[in-house]
Structures are given as structure tokens and as C-alpha cells.
Amino acid sequence: MPTPLVPVAQYLRKSTEHQQYSLTFQSSTLKSYAEKNNFAIVQTYSDSKSGLVLKRRKGLVNLLRDVVAGGQPYKAILVYDVSRWGRFLDADESAHYEFLCTRAGIPVHYCAETFPNDGSMPSAIMKSVKRVMAAEFSRELSAKVTLAMTRMVQEGLWPGSMPGYGLRRLLVSNDRTPKCPMRFGQRKNLRFDRTLIVPGPPEEIAIVKEIFRLYAGEKKSFLHIAGRLNALGIPRVCNDSNVPWTYQAVRQIVLNEKYTGSLIWGRYTQKLRSNCRPVPKEKWIIVPNAFTPIVDRGAFQAAQSIWLRKTRRLSDEQFLERLRSLLKKKGRLNARIINESSLAPSSTAYEGRFGSLDKVYELIGYRRTDTYMLRRLSHTHMLGLYRSVYRRLRRLFSDLRATHQSPIARPRKLRFSTGVTIVVAVCPAEKTLRGQRRWRFESRYAETSGLPTLLCLCDGSNKKIARFVLIRNVSHIHAVAMLKEDDERLTGGIRLRHLRDFGRVAHRMSRIS
Fold this sequence. Notes:
Layout: E1 6-13, H1 23-36, E2 39-47, H2 58-69, E3 77-79, H3 82-85, H4 91-103, E4 108-110, H5 121-154, E5 167-172, E6 178-182, E7 194-199, H6 202-217, H7 222-231, E8 236-238, E9 241-243, H8 247-254, E10 263-265, E11 268-269, E12 277-278, E13 285-287, H9 297-310, H10 316-330, H11 335-340, H12 347-354, H13 357-364, H14 372-396, E14 401-402, E15 413-415, E16 421-427, E17 429-431, E18 437-441, H15 444-449, E19 453-458, E20 465-471, E21 481-483, E22 494-496, H16 502-512
Parallel strand pairs: 1-2, 1-3, 3-4, 16-19
Antiparallel strand pairs: 5-6, 5-7, 8-9, 10-13, 11-12, 14-15, 15-16, 17-18, 18-21, 19-20, 20-22
Helix pairs in contact: 6-9, 7-8
């Protein structure tokens, strides 16, 4: 009688550094391994993302969620090698995810490695070495890519995406023979092709010149220029779509040296999937006269002189005195009024100098009378409701924790020790003109997370929660939405008669998902 096959799952992750790591090749290798070891592949998880960060890898996230929740139809997991499991910069992170599987009784098999994953000392040593090597490969590759891009920019080539309003990318061959202009989202299809920056359409060039003329010649503020362009119906093309002009959009044009024909690279860094952070200006890569300028150097310098005169040359007391004068003239202050002023520095300049506008208002003795304080009080009240729900759940479920805890952050994403994750969305109550009750759903995070969501519907006073509804997915409820009694968008959700049922229902819903 033949031995029954053991059901297993396979995890595939596509990598671009070698063709041998394609999903088809990995799947073929894992299939051969399964046939030799009496396995039958019954489920597949796959990713086409970098192995540095877990949150971008939906396949591995789903695998770990299924394993921790239990009830999965397989007894082991097949992976091509240690690097396909992940190139996590912290080797312990990779080990932790494997430990979650092992603790649930689902061992991980690295099919292309020369050592068996049997828990022995040689196996443990080799796995640790391989994990460190995988992380070091990512670091070395990042350094090489950064160096290559730096050299390309120094040679006048553009390695990035869209260069901004009024500029376009031009696809050229290796000897810089022009081929065709590139639209947003297009990529070169030949390895040896290159891209250059060239001036954009004549109408956009004319708008850029007009912006510099208004700012440097007529001394108009950024917000005034944005309002004039919007009033004239002049669109701003951004990512192949027309969007209105804003203060920041005009500011980025006036203060950016690229419109003088300079190629600027490295203003921000995000190496190894880290958070984006600015780079000091002395470390930027600036290549002057790399392409045809839109504005001459004199017009650009005149604009910079005006900007510097409004900010850096003023002392702290001069900053405050100009704001006092503006307050006396307008009677009130906010970021829009400050930005519209032609004499006072911008709101961002005040924030950079003093830390925040609240601090500036305190220094000049100004107390806001607009809706700002109402919004601030509303935020504080909502924060209290979120924390109240979190405290109630913690008292009922000791293994429940907020994934991100901060004195100023709402505990909106909760995770059990089993790995089951739930999003919390508090919905305040409102009344229509006819006196009908509605609940405002405004959690964009819950809408886009794809996770089961606990909707906390407030009572009429918005001081406590009237009912709890656990719904598998709220991606079909767009923020901001008004929910009514027996709303059809809540069909499929489970109303909790008692909050102590939350843990049982959440785990059951997670397994179904």
C-alpha cells in the first residue's frame, strides 16, 4: 500500500538580480523536492517584492497569518532558499518568522540549500550565516546602485522618474541619439538605453516663466500666484492628471535650481526601504548646464534673493514683529493669511524657526478664534474614545496589544498573540435635518488595510459606544461615509451582543478570510 503524500505549501518570491530566481524556476525546483520527499503541494503563496520589509509582502503576510490562526490544510512549507524567505537586515527577524511556523507545527524546508533544516547545530549555524549573507548582499547592492546612479547624474543622465512640471524625460540610445519622449509611468525597455531631461511643452514653459516673473518682478506671494493660475483655469499636470495649483506647488518651482538647466540628484534618501529623509544640501549631486534652461540664472537668483530677504536675514524679533503687524491689519491669523502676505515670511518659515505656529501665536499673545480649536477638541475627544475602547478590550483579552502605541496616536490596529489583527474604527453619531441618526465613517486606514474591522458606533451624545459591529472588510465603504440604521454596506458584518464575544468572532472571521 503506497504511503500517503504529506500536504505542504510553497512560498515563492521573485527576485530581479538573477534570472534563476524567477517564480517558474523556483516552482519547478520545489516540485522536484516535493516528489523526492513524498510531499504534495496543495497551496501556493507568492510575492514579487523586495525581501527587506515584511509589510509590502502580502504573500508572506498571508502565509504567517494562516499558520498562526491554525486550520491550514498543509503540514510543512517549502521555500527555495534562505534568501527567498527574506533578506531582512536584522537576521533575527527572519528567524522570528520561521519560529512562528515551527511553533505552530509547520516546519520550513529550504529546498535548494545544501544543509537539512533539522534543528541541528550545523544547520542552525549555516542558517544564521546565510541570513547574514542575504542581508549583506542587500547592503552591498544598495551601495552599488547608489554609486551607479551618482555616476549617471554626473554624466548628465537622469536615472529617476518624472522630473517635475515644465520638464520631460527623453529616451536616448547609449550614444545619446534621441528616440522618443517618455510619458508618466513609461520605462525604457532596453538595458543600454538612457534618459535625459528636456524642457516640456511650450505652454508649461510659459507658465514657469510667468511664475518667476510674478514672484521676482511683481513681488507676489506663492499663494497669490497659485490663486491667479487657478482663477485663469490653467491646469497643473501631475502624474498625467490635472490638479489645481497650491502654495507648495508654486514654491517648489521658484526655489528649485533645476529650471536653470541644472541636474539635481540626492536631495532625499530612502536606502534599504527605510523612511524617506532629507539630505544636507552640501551632499547633493548638482550638475549645472546639463540641459536647456527654462529660466535664466539672473531671474532665478532674483527670486532666491527675495526668498532669503523674507526669511534668513530677519531676526527672531523681526519675525514676530511682522506677524504682529499682520495680525493688526487682518484681525486674525492662520497659515493661509500668513502665506498670502507679501511682507511676512511663509508659515513654513515660522514653523522652521520656532517649531510650530502654536508656539509663534503664544509668543505674540494671539489666541485663535476660528474653527481650529474646535477641530483640536474634536481630535482630543476621538482619541479618548479610541483609548476607552482599547482599555475595555484589554481588560477582556490580556493577549491583545496595539501594534503602535503613542501618547498622541489612536490605538486603531490591534493584534492578538495568535497573530490575528483587527482594525478599530470609531464612528461618531450625527443627526440629519430630519432628525435621523447617521454614523460618520472616516477611517481611511481601515478602508485601505484590507483587515477585519471593528466598527464602534457611538450613541447620540458621542460620549460612549452604543454598538459594536465586526466586519470582514470595509474597502467598499469609502471615507468619509455616513452610515445609517441597517445600512446595506454593513451586510455580512456581525453585531456583537457583548464585547466579550469579540475575540471568538475575530478569530473565526480571520480564518474565513
